[in-house]
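ESCALATION

Customer reports they have been waiting on this structure for their group meeting. Please prioritize. Original submission:
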Amino acid sequence: MTGVICGTGSYTPAWVMDNNDIAKLVDTNDGWIQERTGVVRRHIIKDETTVSMAVESGKRALENAKVTAEEIDLILVATISSNVVLPCTACEVQKAIGATHATCFDIGGAACTGFVIAYNTAMVYLTSGVYKTALVIGSESLSTITNWKDRGTCILFGDGSGAVVLKAKEGKPYLPVTHSEGAKGMALTCKSRYERNGLTGASDIQELLSAEHFMQMDGQAVFKFAVKRVPEVVREVLTVNDVVQEEISYYILHQANKRIVEAVAKRLEEPLEKFPMNLQEYGNTSSASIPILLDEMNRQGKLKSGQKLVLVGFGAGLTWGASILEW
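Update from on-call: job pushed to the front of the queue and completed.
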């Protein structure tokens, strides 16, 4: 028994901050940001929340999969930036979509590796026969934990949500590979959450500046970690599954930084065309980045039946992991 993706969905806020908007907050400019990150703009919540975006992306995935909410028996949401702690985000999604038969829980802390961890968790349940149909979501409101006065981090992050529907079917599953290295976790930290005077999102740029403290990142350390560990884990997951690089149509990497993606492609000696990117539009959306990209590619008709993809997440913890799936 294995699990297959039968539908995708995504949602990103309407309010967009481009690099020129960022330049009003910190000493930077559009050229500097694009050269170092590849990011051109990012979507930021106003009236939306982590929960509302998760609900919308989940609904769109169900519609795409032609699956009803009543058929879902597992909902997992990966997030580090939910507007709720209890009930969990997944239970809020269940309530909103009417998935009355689903078991629900959140996966937090894995951050940018969160969707891969959630996908792997759902696959274990499906392949063991415990559940038959799962809704897996990555949803983030990183604008609420971004230090908008820190040039090294505020240029990177955006908000959004992506979702996939997984269904159990006969077949042999691919084995995932995941790792953690807590000893180096100080490279990317977030000491606390916050809510601004009861508001769920920013009403203007000045409100973004009202935050007291949020994510702290050693950009060089994270970059070095990613360009070393990501190629390693790709080779590892291919080896344990007896798959060769030539069989892979696309490598779907967490959308952290254009230079990281380019460096990974170079180290794997693969053409950059096999590493799709949309970070120029959304920035780094943490656990939402992989499912948002999958949904875009799916709806653009780029994903064909039988193609093999490698999903790769990497980020805070430090954590990283890779999974192979067949479309």
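Sent to customer with the following note: Residues 219-240 form the longest helix (22 residues).
Escalation resolved.
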